[in-house]
TrEMBL record:
Residue ranges that the Swiss-Prot or TrEMBL entry lists as coiled coil: none
Name of the featured protein: CoA transferase subunit A
A Gene Ontology molecular function term of the record: CoA-transferase activity
Keyword hit for DNA damage: no
Natural source organism: Aminithiophilus ramosus
Keyword Transferase part of the UniProt annotation: yes
Source superkingdom: Bacteria
Amino acid sequence: MSRKVIKPVLSAAEAVRSVKAGSRVMVGGFNYGGIPYSLVEALVEAGTGDLTLISNDTAYEDVGHGRLVARGQVKKVIASHVGLNKKTGKLFHDGLMELELCPQGTFVERIRAAGFGLGGFLTPTGVGTVVEEGKEVLEVEGRKYILELPLRADVAFVRAHKADRRGNLTYFGTNRNFNPAMAMAADYVVAEVDSVVEVGEIDPNDVVTPGILIDALVVKEDLYYAART
């Protein structure tokens, strides 16, 4: 077996060294589910700042990647929902952080477009609203569409259930959410998993994200993820 296909298994602290100041970082998850908590916590501890955070939401100010926002490590958020994290709104309204809200379906399609190498796509979602401001609007067969552009990151942190040493990933339930799409749309992808097994122990029919997309693996650490007081 060629060693070239074996993915490195890193600690979370080692893995987040791939994130430099000013990086665009995708983080999987939807509310509490599917967040790569160990990786996010390590990034919080590293203190890396000036980040553009690309995530479905900003969790809560004391949970997951919401802590990156609350700690002032994020200069811009691109998300579809931020109402559960009061710090996100405050920083935006105080002019201390940029915020780009994107309809959820459009958000994930922009990520998919980047993953598949597309130049963008047309959607009627947001036509005639603030969503179309600053974007090109095209008319096709009498109907208006917004041209939405791909959304790509320097680094993606995704959460999966299990990996083999080649980086093939399986997911568990709704924790899957945005993670497979994000794994396709970054220059460097780290997958946080419950366990890493030997090649051949995962049925190929169960693989959702192929290992060719994954650069490194991290086994989740025993952290306390609940909201902190």
